[in-house]
Design a protein that fits this description.
The protein is α+β, with helices and mostly antiparallel strands. The protein folds into two domains: about 110 residues, Aminopeptidase (3-Layer(aba) Sandwich), CATH 3.40.630; about 180 residues, Aminopeptidase (3-Layer(aba) Sandwich). About 30% of the residues lie in helices and about 30% in strands. The protein has nine helices and 13 strands. The strands form two sheets. The chain has a ten-stranded mixed sheet, sandwiched between helices. Strands 1-2-5 form a three-stranded antiparallel sheet, covered by helices on one side. Helix 5 packs across helix 8 and helix 6 runs antiparallel to helix 7. The model has no long low-confidence stretch (mean pLDDT about 95).
Length: about 300
């Protein structure tokens, strides 16, 4: 009901053996599987996700009683293993076809508290209004500017061509992240392995100027409801051509056409600040130009004596 690709064993197995100490848990009621928790122990902490973007409990449409029972069983497991802290980061409610927070309530009731919130931005893809008409006037102007550029072509990459295109796009990812003093979350080998493990996971759009790759937009198909933007990147030497506006429109249109309910533009935090919750306002302003709204990506935490 609330699962994502980040809970799947096929996804988590892209990590090198031994990188994480996984302790994935299955919860049964009268021999019926009612919940799964993908995570593991790091030091004295139990973390979910571990090596992924979203974690916490995956359930069916459970009752309040079942939610409380799941949390009780989990706490018995934690107590028996000497875990001192638990961190659980679930996918936002837009990832659920049925909106319920029984599990969140059960955790809060048992003494969990919010350890941090990140601000993400999502686009609601419902309604008949054309995507471009929903953009801020500045974004529409930049889109039309890009559309008029001679030789600027956006392409939706076929699955068969993805490995080669990823290899060409990856240096742009590295260059972009270096501007922020970071590196991509995934290595090129990671992305290629994920593409082998989950051939339907990655979706790439590229922008070329007279044949030269200048930008790309790499998405993850997070689940049946949400397409997740992971790496929208460009070569800043070509910023004047506004390729990201053209790429964004194409990617969002694709998601709507493919039946997704939401387009998740990802979190916008200032990674250079000591406070991990500090927003990167310039990035937020950019995302808001595409008719996106802020949504919390929250982590629940409890310290065990």
């Amino acid at each position: 009901m609330n699962g994502t690709v980040f809970h799947k064993q096929q996804f988590l197995s892209y990590h090198a053996p031994g990188k994480f100490s996984f302790n994935h848990l299955l919860f049964y009621h009268n021999k019926e599987l009612i919940a799964v928790l993908a995570g593991g122990i790091r030091g004295t902490s139990y973390e979910s996700p571990l090596g992924a973007s979203y974690g916490s409990f995956v359930t069916m449409d459970i009752s309040a009683d079942e939610a409380l029972a799941i949390v009780h069983a989990f706490e018995e497991y934690i107590a028996a293993r000497g875990v001192k802290d638990v961190f659980l980061t679930s996918a936002p409610v837009i990832y659920q076809p049925i909106i319920t927070q029984n599990l969140d309530f059960a955790l809060l009731y048992r003494g969990y508290a919010y350890q941090r919130h990140y601000i993400s931005h999502t686009i609601d893809l419902s309604g008949e209004q054309p995507i471009l008409d929903r953009f801020h006037p500045t974004a529409r102007r930049h889109y039309r500017h890009a559309e008029k550029q001679t030789g600027l072509v956006v392409e939706e990459i076929a699955q068969s061509a993805l490995p080669g295109e990823l290899a060409e796009f990856y240096p742009i990812m590295v260059e972009n992240k270096a501007r922020l003093g970071t590196t991509p979350t995934h290595s090129l080998d990671d992305l290629l392995k994920l593409n082998e493990l989950l051939p339907d996971l990655l979706k790439l759009f590229t922008a070329r100027l007279s044949g030269e790759l200048i930008a790309g937009f790499l998405l993850f198909r997070a689940n049946a409801r949400v397409a997740l933007s992971f790496y929208p990147m460009m070569r800043y030497d070509f910023e004047e051509y506004k390729p990201m506006y053209l790429l964004s429109q194409r990617a969002i249109e694709w998601a709507k056409r493919d039946g997704y309910a939401f387009f998740d533009l990802g979190v916008s935090q200032d990674t250079s600040d000591d406070n991990p919750m500090t927003p990167k306002l310039s990035l937020i302003r950019f995302k808001e130009k595409f008719d996106s709204r802020g949504l919390l990506r929250s982590t629940l935490w409890k310290k065990y004596d």
